[in-house]
Write a structure and sequence with these properties.
Length: 418
């Protein structure tokens, strides 16, 4: 036993940067999840389920445009930085190219968002809430989390997010009192995040010695072309996850969307401790691909996924009672069904982040998302045609996740043999 403990500590010491990166990436997820859980009971009782559902709906729409502005540069940029993390010239060039490209994409996003507001008049009922939520697209430009991941300095991101989230709390608890304060709440959330993003942007110049210059349009086109597979995969993933929020809000109502969102928050509790594993290992795997290590990681993550599902089934009722009260108890079975996605996300994340992307097989990632999205739409169509119960949506989502696992398992076996 003592020998195994000693070996474990030796491994941690040899991989100090990975351990640190994993810790702070996990801490970021914990902060985000804890913050959402901290304010949720207060918001659901002051704003009410209907108004809170509107905020979730607006955020879901904004996420489509965030994906457009990001254009898959997070993974692509992190890979470029991780391959040469000590060259200031290289880092400055990568940041400049991505920054310039995102500015162009932001202008396109504004144009498309404006059209969306006119095409769907229902959005004008809470026009400024949608506009304020859309402003979060600027975070994708000013806060290059992918850069800090590439240089393995995620502690910087953790400190920034912690400070500005704490800063927003007094404003939420003092000023948000009734359902009419929905716009004020959205403004506080977006404003505090933008302040953190501005600080992170300034940090690049002062502490990282980065020089960001306007890149030529040729570089913009080159980066868009090179990152297109990452964009397609991110967009299909957003289509898959956020579509459920939009379907629930439009088909079942904003109150049911608030219930569905609570179930998602319950699922996020174990995910915050698990989903950073593959991202933290990514820089190491890029530099030193190891088949034996990958097999061990996949096995361990399967076991962890099953334990997480059992934990959700046994503890979700207590969590829902504390966070939402009796009126939100319908979230339990949604959470139980969605718990399979914890297992699925661990497996698919390992296949994609630790095998396909390091092997530069980005096209398989795109194909995987296409298969997953088509299967989701198929299962949703079948489910809604058979029953009008909200549970058909998490069932469809879990079934599509199973299809995704089976597809990626088949593909990665082929890639590893090559």
């Amino acid at each position: 036993m003592q020998k195994h403990i000693t070996l474990a500590f030796d491994m941690i010491k040899r991989n100090k940067k990975i351990t640190e990166n994993y810790f702070f990436m996990t801490l970021i997820l914990i902060l985000n999840s804890f913050f959402a859980l901290l304010i949720y009971p207060y918001l659901i009782r002051t704003l009410g389920a209907e108004s809170y559902g509107i905020y979730v709906f607006a955020s879901s729409i904004a996420n489509y445009f965030i994906c457009l502005v990001g254009f898959g540069f997070d993974m692509y940029g992190a890979r470029l930085i991780a391959e040469n993390p000590f060259s200031i010239e290289n880092k400055s060039q990568v940041l400049s190219n991505i920054f310039t490209t995102k500015i162009y994409l932001e202008l396109i996003a504004i144009f498309l968002f404006t059209i969306t507001l006119f095409v769907f008049p229902i959005l004008q009922l809470h026009l400024w809430v949608y506009i304020v939520c859309f402003a979060t697209t600027l975070l994708n430009i000013l806060f290059p989390t992918w850069y800090f991941q590439g240089v393995q300095k995620m502690r910087v991101v953790s400190y920034i997010q912690l400070f500005f989230k704490l800063l927003s709390l007094p404003f939420i608890f003092v000023w948000v009192k009734t359902p009419e304060d929905l716009l004020l709440f959205a403004s506080i959330m977006t404003g505090s995040s933008l302040l953190g993003a501005i600080y992170a942007f300034v940090h690049l110049f002062i502490f990282e010695k980065i020089e960001i210059k306007w890149a030529s349009f040729n570089y913009v086109l080159k980066y868009i072309h090179t990152s297109q597979y990452f964009f397609y995969t991110n967009f299909l993933n957003i289509m898959k996850t956020q579509a459920l929020n939009l379907i629930v809000g439009a088909h079942f109502g904003m109150r049911d969307l608030a219930i569905y969102d609570l179930a998602n928050k319950i699922i996020q509790i174990p995910l915050i401790l698990l989903t950073s594993i593959n991202s933290a290992l990514f820089p190491k795997v890029v530099l030193n691909f190891n088949h034996l290590l990958l097999k061990r990681i996949i096995l361990i993550e399967r076991i962890i996924g099953v334990l997480a599902m059992l934990g959700i089934a046994s503890l979700a009722k207590i969590a829902i009672s504390i966070l939402g009260g009796e009126k939100m108890e319908d979230a339990y079975w949604i959470a139980v069904i969605l718990s399979f996605t914890i297992f699925a996300f661990l497996q698919t994340g390992c296949y994609i982040a630790l095998i396909l992307i390091p092997k530069h097989k980005d096209n398989y990632v795109l194909k995987d998302l296409v298969v997953s999205f088509i299967s989701l739409m198929f299962f949703i169509s079948i489910g809604i045609s058979v029953s009008n119960h909200i549970l058909v949506l998490p069932i469809a989502f879990s079934l599509s996740a199973l299809v995704e696992i089976l597809y990626l398992r088949s593909v990665t076996k082929k890639v590893l043999v090559e």
